[in-house]
Design a protein that fits this description.
By secondary structure, the protein is of the alpha/beta class. Helix content is 49%, strand content 18%. It is flat.
Length: 545
């Protein structure tokens, strides 16, 4: 259990906390080969994020840990990782010696499945380190044949071998066998039923595009017209369908499916039943605010890009569009313009709309002002155990440190609330909220708590989310209030955050991956703990690039 917990933190990119837990849980003094390999993995993560002498020093330490793992029964996996880290440390002689040892290790390749895959992938890595690229390519082909559906394993090997190739200046085209299928955001116009021949022709073009782009995962809505056709085409090709609904399903059908013809409703339900996942931008009925549709599209775009990053593959947008720009925040033209700003590839199928299609169901405009905001909930782990005499120091050191950090932000929060050790911050832009979260964590780590009589285990936990909220005035205090279901999402993330870390929702992680991938990294952690009347949500560890 300790090994699994620390490995999950490492995979999420929470390297500092993973290293702390590695020591606290006793893994640092274990002679178990898996614990030793995990220690090597943590040192490797530090090395890969460093430069110069620090990079080489941590690479050498990682290599020693992997050698120890191999000596304790870690076998070929330990040796080949030690060889790779020796390469990063600048010791090519030791890298060659260890790689040769990995290849010469007694035993035939393991059988089928992931065990067989990883054994052969390790052999391929050792061959590559020895400069035997063709033999490495042949072994890699054999590895993939053992577990063709283990896409996460393929992506992990792709990252490792690409890193080696960058280190030695080798080509990478032979590694494309490891590249998982592309992820896609799909979009297009809503329209009423077309003649059977016209629809069949459009779906044939869609199928050709899905094959040409090698799309295996699709994210988008399920409105009548292009959305449903994309979903049917993707499912027919054997891909995964991931639906992002802007509203509760009943309202979604009444606003975006049934008005375009009853025949779309059955197709909507059939696609929904086969979807690999269904996410909700909101679960409320339509209230006349089209911004929720734009938010849902950006949520779906972020999910597609996050999935591509996790699998080390391509993200592409596929669209059915008439080429006309449309007013308003939502729709095919808005989706296309938003994606185009990211510089990622698009594939657009031209579409003629000779007559206006049905419009969205009319609704009364929302009576309260709304906006899409980024939110942070901040809590201090251990505050409740403080003695009364320590509370003044807590406010003079920790809360004052947070105040100073917030005041120094280049983009300060639009709204601040605080109670006890809790702080709620609201920002217009997710990137500003992400920067604030990391600055707060960095500021807290620099505090000398012991000098003021405070326990060192006091640590910030920050939960973040991005979503539509109501902007009102509190009738009791007369101050601005930010309220709504999405505020609750942000609040529910914070209790599951590892001390000293910031976790964000999938919606916020997706926006950061879409527009700010050069600044922030969001590693998948898992899902929040189930709570009464609150479904679990996916959460991501936030860190700097």
């Amino acid at each position: 259990m300790a090994h699994a917990a620390v490995l999950s933190l490492a995979r999420a990119g929470a390297t500092d906390f993973a290293r702390t837990e590695f020591v606290r849980l006793g893994l640092a003094v274990s002679d178990d080969p898996e614990a030793l390999s995990l220690g090597g993995r943590l040192l490797k993560d530090v090395a890969l994020s460093a430069e110069g002498a620090r990079r080489r020093a941590f690479a050498r330490a990682s290599a020693r840990a992997y050698v120890a793992a191999a000596a304790s029964g870690g076998g070929r996996y330990g040796l080949v990782n030690a060889a790779t880290m020796s390469l990063l440390a600048g010791d090519m002689g030791q890298a060659s010696e260890l790689a040769t040892g990995a290849i010469d290790l007694a035993g035939q390749p393991a059988g089928q499945g992931e065990a067989g895959y990883f054994d052969r992938a390790s052999r391929a890595e050792a061959l590559f380190l020895l400069g035997r690229q063709q033999a490495a390519a042949d072994m890699l082909t054999a590895a993939v044949a053992q577990a063709p559906g283990s896409l996460s394993a393929h992506a992990s090997t792709l990252r490792q071998l690409s890193m080696i190739a960058a280190e030695i200046g080798a080509p990478t085209s032979w590694l494309e066998i490891l590249r998982p299928p592309a992820t896609a955001h799909f979009t297009g116009h809503m329209f009423t039923a077309r003649e059977p021949g016209e629809e069949a022709a459009l779906k044939a073009r869609m199928a050709d595009l899905v094959r040409a782009q090698r799309i295996g995962f699709g994210y988008g809505g399920l409105a009548a017209g292009a959305d449903i056709l994309w979903a049917e085409t993707l499912l027919a090709a054997g891909g995964e369908l991931h639906v992002v609904a802007p509203l509760g399903l009943a309202s979604y059908v009444e606003t975006s499916v049934r008005p375009f013809g009853e025949r779309w409703v059955g197709r909507f339900e059939a696609c929904l039943a086969r979807a690999a996942s269904v996410r909700f931008a909101a679960r409320d009925p339509y209230a006349g605010d089209d911004e929720v549709f734009a938010y849902a599209s950006r949520f779906a775009i972020g999910c597609a890009i996050l999935r591509a990053e996790g699998l080390s593959t391509r993200a592409v947008q596929v669209a059915v569009w008439d080429g006309r720009s449309a007013a308003g925040p939502a729709g095919a033209s808005a989706d296309i313009a938003y994606w185009r700003e990211t510089g990622r590839p698009q594939a657009i199928l031209p579409f003629e709309r000779p007559a206006p299609d049905a419009a969205l169901a009319a609704a009364s405009p929302a009576t309260s002002e709304r906006g899409v905001k980024a939110m942070l909930f901040i809590d201090v782990r251990g505050f409740g155990a403080l003695h009364d005499a320590q509370v003044p120091a807590f406010f003079e050191v920790i809360m004052a440190g947070m105040a100073e950090a917030i005041a120094g932000l280049s983009a300060p929060p639009e709204h601040v609330e605080t109670w006890g050790d809790g702080v709620f911050l609201v920002f217009d832009q997710p990137s500003d909220a992400a920067e604030a979260a990391l600055v707060l964590l960095e500021t807290h780590r620099r505090l000398n708590l012991r000098a003021r009589g405070l326990p060192r285990h006091l640590a910030l936990r920050i939960g973040g989310h991005y979503g539509p909220v109501h902007l009102r005035v509190n009738p009791i205090t007369g101050a601005q209030a930010v309220v709504g279901a999405h505020v609750v999402v942000a609040a529910r993330i914070e209790p599951d955050v590892a001390p000293g870390a910031a976790y964000v929702s999938e919606a916020m992680a997706g926006i950061l991956a879409t527009r700010h991938a050069d600044r922030f990294r969001c590693g998948y952690v898992g899902r929040t703990s189930p709570r009464k009347s609150f479904p679990p949500v996916s959460i991501f560890n936030l860190s700097r690039r």
